From TrEMBL, chain A:
Component of the oligosaccharyltransferase (OST) complex. InterPro entries: Ribophorin_I. It is found in: Endoplasmic reticulum membrane. This is Dolichyl-diphosphooligosaccharide--protein glycosyltransferase subunit 1. The lineage of its organism: Eukaryota, Viridiplantae, Streptophyta, Embryophyta, Tracheophyta. It comes from Camelina sativa.
UniProtKB/TrEMBL annotation, chain B:
Residues 23-426 form the Oligosaccharyl transferase STT3 N-terminal domain. This is dolichyl-diphosphooligosaccharide--protein glycotransferase. It comes from Camelina sativa (False flax). Its cofactor is Mn(2+); Mg(2+). Residues 577-636 form the STT3/PglB/AglB core domain. It is a multi-pass membrane protein. It is found in: Endomembrane system.
Amino acid sequence: MKQSSVVVVDLLLLLLTIAVIATPAFSDLVLSKVERRIDVTSQFARVTKSLKVVNPGSESISEFMLTFPKFLGNNLAYLSVKTKRPLANLSVKKADPKGIPDSISVYSVALPKTLSKGDSLTLEVVATFTNVLQPFPEKITQGEIHLVMLQESAQYLSPYTVESQSLSIKLPNARIESYSKLENTKLQGSELKYGPYKNLPPFSYSPIVVHFESKAAFAVAEKLVREIEVSHWGNVQVTEHYNVVHRGAQLKGEFSRLDFQARPNPRGASAFRHLLARLPPRAHSIYYRDDIGNISTSEMQSDSKKTELLIEPRFPLFGGWKTFFTIGYGLPLSDFLFASEGKRFVNISFGSPMIDLVTEKLIVQVVLPEGSKDISVTTPFAVKQSREIKYSHLDIAGRPVVVLEKDNVVPDHNQHIQVYYKFSNINLLSEPLMLISGFFVLFITCIIYTRADFSISKSSPTYLAKLQWDEVLATLQEVQSIIQKCLAAHDKLEASLRDLSRTGDFQTCKAARKSTDSLLKDLSKELKPLLGFLQSSPSASHISPKVEELVVKEKELQEKLMAKHTTVVEGYEKKSSGRDIENRIASQQQKIIALRQEIEDLLEFIDEI
Amino acid sequence: MAALESPQPAATATAMRHAFGNVLSVLILVLIGVLAFSIRLFSVIKYESVIHEFDPYFNYRVTQFLSKNGIYEFWNWFDDRTWYPLGRVIGGTVYPGLTLTAGTIWWFLNSLNIPLSVETVCVFTAPVFSAFASWATYLLTQEVKGSGAGLAAAVLLAMVPSYISRSVAGSYDNEAVAIFALIFTFYLYIKTLNTGSLFYATLNALAYFYMVCSWGGYTFIINLIPMHVLLCIVTGRYSPRLYIAYAPLVVLGTLLAALVPVVGFNAVLTSEHFASFLVFIIIHVVALVYYIKGILTPKMFKVAVTLVVSIGMVVCFIVVAILVALVASSPTGGWSGRSLSLLDPTYASKYIPIIASVSEHQPPTWPSYFMDINVLAFLVPAGIIACFSPLSDSSSFVVLYIVMSVYFSGVMVRLMLVLAPAACIMSGIALSQAFDVFTGSIKYQLGRSSNSTDDAEDTNNAPKDDASAGKTDKGEEIVKERSSKKGKKKEREPADKPSVKSKAKKKALVLPLETSIVALLLLIMLGAFYVIHCVWAAAEAYSAPSIVLTSQSRDGLHVFDDFRESYAWLSHNTDVDDKVASWWDYGYQTTAMANRTVIVDNNTWNNTHIATVGTAMSSPEKAAWEIFNSLDVKYVLVVFGGLIGYPSDDINKFLWMVRIGGGVFPHIKEADYLRDGQYRINSEATPTMLNCLMYKLSYYRFVETDGKGYDRVRRTEIGKKHFKLTHFEEVFTSHHWMVRIYKLKPARNRIRGRAKKLKSKTTSAGWSSKSEKKNPWV
C-alpha cells in the first residue's frame, strides 16, 4: 500500500511538472501574500486561505481562478470565497478553461469589482475536503492506533505568481508518525508549518505527506434522510434516518469485548462509541431508535441556547462497521415559521445536527401542510430539487413535499434554507371536521339501522313471530295501563272515603262511587278484547295466565273496595261511630291491601317481560 | 287527573328503565374494553413499544412480508432464510389468522391514510383483541346466565393474569386473537342452541373458521362441542335446536377448515376431528328416532325401534370400521405429537424431547394456578353449583368447558390460557348469583326493619301512605330509576305482612342482614384482591419483553439490551446471505431482527436438523466446525449469562441440545456430559463437557474478566479456564457478554496434504496463537 501511494504521488508530480512547463501564465494577477491553514483535527480537512490579490498589469480583471490538485478537487465538499472589505460572498463556479491540465480542478470566482491596475483585494477562502485523510495502514487490529495520511502541496498551487506564502497544518494532539521535511519546515507542538516561501512561479507544487494518529470519529453517513414535517398545529417534527459507517482503517481479526472493556488500558482506540447531536433549543419529544426498537443509550442536556443529545449506537463502531438508527424530535413552530409578503416560510437548517459528521448523500424532505400552494425554495448553495406528495394522517389531497438532495455534505453546509409557501388557516380545520362528520354519519347509520325494518322476507316465520311478539307486548302495555287506570280509580274511591270522614257528606261520596263504578265498567269492557287476543296468541301462552290472574285479582279488589265503600257510606248514613265502621271494615281492609300488593307484584312481573 | 296521567309515566318509566339499563351495560362494556386494553399497556409504558419474546418475532416478520407483498405472495411464500438449506413453506405451514388480522388492520388504517407502522399494529393487536374477548365473554355468559353474570365475567376476563401473560402489548402471538375466536365461537354455539336460528349457526361456522385460521387449539372446540352434544343427547335433552347448532357447524366448519392450508385434509384425516364426525352420525340417528317417534303411534314406534336400532347398529359398525381403518392409515398415525401428549401426559417426555424441552409444555405447579387465575380458583366451584340450578343446555356446556379445560391446563402450563375464560365465566356466574342473593336479602331485611317501625304508627295511615307514595314514586321513576325502585320497595313492603310472606316464598334464599352485609364485604374484598393481583401481575410479572432485561440496582435502572445489540451488529456488519447457527430458541429473532439466514428456528418442524445443531454444539471444536461448515454456516451465536447472571442461557439449555442431538446421532451420549448424573461445569465436569463447542464458545476468555472465571448463574468457578479456539474466532460480544458471536475460520489450505495431518494438528495451536498478527485468510 505504501508503495502504491508513493507511486501516485510521484505520478502526480510528474504530471504537474509537465503542466507547469506546458501552461502559459494565466493572467497578470499576482498573489502578494498567501496564508493557508489546514485543520485536520476531525475526519475531514478544512482549508482556510487568505489570498491577497494584486493586479500589476494594465487590463482590469473581474475573474479569479482558484485551483486545486485534482485528487483534492474531487473530494471538495464545500467551498466559499469571501472578501472582508466589503463583506461579501462571492459566487464560485466550476470552470474548465483551456490550457489547464486534467490533473488540476479549477474554480472561477467572480470578483466583486473589477481589479484595475495596482488594485488589491483580499480573498478569504474556506474549502472542506472529505476523504483526504487516508487511513494508513488500511487495516488495523483492535489494539492498534488509527493512523491517517494527508497529502498536500507545501506550495500553493495557483495559476498566478505567488510572492509570499506559508502553510500551517493543525494536527490533532497525538502521535505524529512522519511528515515530509522540506526547507523551512517546523513542527511546533501539534502544528506543522511550511514556509514562508518567496516568489514562486505559477503552478509551483511540492508534495508533502503527513502521517499521524487521528482520534477523530470517522463517522460517515452513507445516506441520511431528514424529514421535516411542518404542522400548523404548532409543531415541526424532524425525523432523521442515519446509515452510519466508520470510514477509518478497517478492523481486521477478532473483536474482543474483553480487551475493549479492559481496565486500565482498553484496546479499541480506533472505534467510536458516541455521536453528539446539537439540536435546536426547545427541542422536545426526542427519540432515538432503529428498526428493532428503542436504543436506550443516549443522554440529553438542554439549556436555553441548545439541546445536546449524546447518542451511543448499539455497539461501538470499528473501522468498516456500519449501523443504522433514527432520531426524531419536535420543535416549536414559532421558532421556525415566519411570514413575509403574504407568504409563509420555514427557515430551518439544512444539514445534520451531528457534530463532525460527513454525509455522503443527504436527502431533506420538507413536508408542508395539506393545501399549501406556490412553493418555492431558497438555498445558500446548489441542491437538487424535486417534489413529491405524501399521504399521512387522514389526508385526501396529500401533503406537498419539497425534496432536496445533495452529495458530500459537511458541517459547513449547516446553513438555513427557506421554503416559501402559501397556506390558508381554514385548511387546518378540514381534518377535525372530517372526523366529526365521519362519526356523525356512523351514528346516524346506527340509529337508522336500529329504527328501520330491514327484513327481506315479510312472511318468514321468525319475522311473523317477531311481529306477533311486538303485538303481544303492545297489548300487554295496554292491559297494564288499564289496570293502572283501575288502580287510580280505586285511589279516587279511597280519597272520597277520606273526604267523607272529614266532611261527613255522604252524597258526594255516593256520586263518586257511581262515577267510579261506571268508569271501572268501561275499563273492564276495554280489557275484554285484549284478554281475548292474549289468550288466542300462541306466543303469549306463557304470559296470558298471569294476565288473567291479574285481571281476576283486580276484579276482586274492585268488589272488595266497593263493598268497603258501601259499608262505610252506609255506616255514615246510619251515623254509626267511627270505631264501629272501622271494626266492620277491618277484615275487608286487610284483604284489600293484600290484593293490592298481589296486583302490584303481578304488574311488576309483567313489567319485566 | 291522576287517573288519567299516572299510567302514561308508568309506561314510559318501563321503557326508560330498559333503555337506561341498556345504556348502562353498554357503558360498562365500553369501560371493560378500555380496562382490558389499558391493563396490557404496562409493557409499552415500562419498556417500549416492541415485539416480545420469540414467536411474536416470526409473526411480525410474516406480517411485514404480507403487508409488503400482498396476500397471494404470502400464500406462496417459500422462506429460504430459515432452516437452511431446507427452507420452509411459510404460506402452507402457518396459522394465518393472526397475520391476516393484523395485516388487514394495517391495510385498513393505511387506506384511511393513518400511517401506523406494521410494528405498531402488531404490538397493539393483542390488547385490542383482549377487549374483544371480554365482550365475547359477556355475550357468552349472558346467554348462559343473564347480563349480570355476563358483565361480571367480562370484567374478570379483562384482567385475568393468565390471559394477560399472552396478550400484553407486544405479545403478538396466535393466542392473542385465538382466545377471542374461541370464546366467540362458543358464544355463537350457545346462541344457536338457545335460538335454533340457522343464521347464528352459519355465523358459528365462520367463527370456527376464524379460530382454525388462528390457532392449533381449534381442536379443543371441535372436540368440546361434540362432547356437549353427546352429553345433551345422553341426558335426553335432544332438540331441533341442538341439531341446528351442531350439524351445520360440522359440515360448514370442516369444509372451511380444509381451506386453511396448514390444516387442509387434516380436517378429515386426523384423529382430533373424528369425535365430531362420530357425534355427527349419532345426532342424525337420534334425530331420525325422534322424527319417527313423532309420526308413529307408541306401538308402532316400539316395532320401529327394534328395526332402526338393528340397522343403526350395522351402520355404526361399518362407520366405526371405516374410521378405524382411516386412523390406522392416516399419515400422522392418527394423532399429532402435541395432541398425544395431551392425552398421555408422559408421552412427550418419553418420545419427543423437543416438545418436552419447551418450558410452556410442562405441567403447571400449584402456585402457577394461583398466579394465573388467582381467586377465580375459589369461585369456580360456586359457579359450577350455580350452573346446576337450574341446569340448562347452555349451562351444561360451560360446566363441560371448565371440566375439560381444567384437565388440559393440568397437562400443559400453556393451556392454562384455555382455562382462564372458563374460570372467568364460572366466577362471573358465581359472583353475580352471590350478589343477587346478598343484595336481595339486604333489601328485604332493610324493608322488614323499617316495616316494624311503621307498624308502631297508625295502621290507618298505611294505605294512605301507600297510595301517595305510589303517586310520587311514579314521578320519581322517570328522574331516577334505581333509587325510586328501592324507595318503592321500602315503602310498599311495610304495608302488610301477607305480601311479605309471599315474597319470602318467592325468594328461595333470604339471609340475615348482618350475614349478607359481611358476605358482601368479603366478596368485595375478594374482588379487590383479585384486581390488585391482576394489576401487579400485568405490571411486574408479564410485561417484560424478554429481549430487553432490566435490573434495579442502587444507582437506578440498568438496561441489558444485549440481544438487540448483537442482532443489530449481525444485520449491519455481516453479509446479507451469511448463515448464522444458534440454538433454535433464537432462530425467529435472528431472522426477524438480524435478517440473516438461520439453520433452525422455533418452528421445530425438523427434528433431525435441530439434532444436527445440537450435535455440533455438543461436539469438540473440530467436529463442530466440520458440521457447521457442511451447513455453510459462517457465524455461530451463543447466549451466555455467566457474566451478569442471566439464567436462561445456552449453558443451562445445553442438556437439551445433548438429548435432542443424541436422539438422532447416537454417538452423543448424555452420560458423557454428566458427572454422577449431575450437570456440572466446574472442575468436576467431564472432559467431554469441557471440550464441547458450547462450553468453549461460552467461556472463551471468560477467566480474564475476573481472574477466576466465576460463573454467576451456576455459582461456581468454571472447570477449564484457559484455552484457545482453533477453528472459530470471536467477532462480536455484546456489552454484557450475553450474546457472543463467533466466525468459522475458513478451511486451511491443504498445502501439506492429508499425510501430514498429525503434524498440522500439533501446529494448529501455535498457529492460532499467532493468528492475531498474521492471518493470511482474513
